[in-house]
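If I may wish for something, please walk me through the protein I am sending here so I can picture the backbone:
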Amino acid sequence: MSNRFVYLVDDDEAIRHSASFMLRHAGYSVKTYPDGISFLDHVSDEHRGCILLDVRMPGMDGLAVQNTLNQRGINMPVIILTGHGDVPVAVEAMKGGAIEFLEKPYEKQALIGAIENAFNLLDNQSADDKRGREAKARLTELTPRERQVLECLVDGLTNKGIAQALSISPRTVEIHRAHMMEKLQADSLSSALRFAFLAGIGEK
């Protein structure tokens, strides 16, 4: 678990010290920051991990930090920490993409549980990214016409509809479709569509 990084952003030195000690003891790698600005100066979209973000900090509050992360396309899971029982702020943070909020003083198990949920999300996200890359790689093997056939299937067209749309014969559609299925290693229409969706075909 030591390669699981937790970024703790809190202006309270005592909390930074106690929480980081507890998390390191639980097996996480922890980096702490006394304010949002120093964290934003350090973090980039190449970083991986989970962010523990205090809501009320001088200079730049947690919501502003979260908004900046979103604008930069940094999509690490965020857990909001609040010591004020400020439900409206916590709700605003959740709308901004935070996965959870914890009120101080929080229980150790509640914090660990929230962090584990965050890393489960990251693991699933990584798996989805990998499947998406694999799907896109297979799509590059298709000829332009085979890709057109797949795009028509995504649009819900039958072979006859595809033939009309592309001004080719139904038999030619069948041939292109068979080649497309073989290259995608898809054994059914639903399997081929799944590859298309993973690769972003059909997204508006």
Summary: The domain at 141-198 is CATH 1.10.10.10 (Arc Repressor Mutant, subunit A). Residues 108-139 form the longest helix (32 residues). The two ends are 38 Å apart (CA to CA).
